[in-house]
Write the structure tokens for this entry.
Amino acid sequence: MAGELPDYYFRIRENGALVFRIDTENRQRRIDMDQIAVVNIRSGEIRPHGDRVLSAADIAVIEGWIVDRRAVLAERDIDDILRAVDHLNLTTQWAQSRATADQLDMVTDALLLAMHDLRSVLVRKKAERIMSADKG
């Protein structure tokens, strides 16, 4: 292999990851992946796999991964929202310059409801922030 393998591998899944310890120090010189835990990223729960007991080093590595993963997911959330802003602008340009009447009929109600819902939430949240700033 080109580089040294890490000691742990995290197989990402919807709500977290399966955690494997990597072992390359065996007679066959092959890569063994031994599942040691299951992680829930939302709750931060770390469950040992089977009857395994996790070492302090295992827990420290997993907790570090949770912190890093949450940061990555938070960055992706903001990026997704900024992309949504771009898509709204592109949609506006499409509606103004290229959309046919039939196409507009297909999307207008759904877009108006979604934008109304979003606007209501944004206005309410902004008002809450202003009110809490005035109290503080």
